[in-house]
């Protein structure tokens, strides 16, 4: 099984991991699924043009962009960007180019718009 160490992920080791369905155009590799009210940690891989509809953060969310560019209403975040979304904030996410992000959620988000 490929390693999920920081060094391996930053150097492209995520390419050797198995991703499964998450949302249309977005796949997921769980490093640590949500369990017993504990945070979840995963890699999300966005196809070019894919996104996640407007949603509200029910807990703290942190994101490290590993490759490509992830965007929201506040701007574009390229590889190496570290994003913190506080409890109660709302936004939608998209990637024009495609991207891979390392994400940690304290709690699942609430989708506010129909997909």
TrEMBL record:
Cited Pfam families: Cupin_7
Record-linked InterPro entries: ChrR-like_cupin_dom (IPR025979), RmlC-like_jellyroll (IPR014710), RmlC_Cupin_sf (IPR011051)
Domain (ChrR-like cupin): residue spans on this chain: 15-103
Protein name, as recorded: Cupin domain-containing protein
Organism whose genome encodes this protein: Shinella lacus
């Amino acid at each position: 099984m490929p390693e999920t160490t920081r060094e391996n992920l930053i150097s492209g080791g995520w390419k050797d991991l198995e991703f499964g369905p998450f949302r249309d155009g977005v796949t997921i590799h769980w490093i640590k699924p949500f369990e017993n009210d504990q945070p979840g940690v995963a890699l999300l891989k966005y196809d070019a043009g894919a996104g996640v509809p407007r949603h509200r953060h029910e807990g703290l969310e942190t994101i490290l962009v590993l490759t490509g560019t992830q965007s929201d209403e506040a701007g574009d975040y390229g590889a190496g960007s570290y994003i913190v979304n506080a409890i109660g904030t709302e936004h939608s996410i998209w990637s024009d180019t495609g991207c891979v992000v390392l994400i940690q959620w304290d709690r699942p988000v609430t989708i506010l718009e129909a997909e």
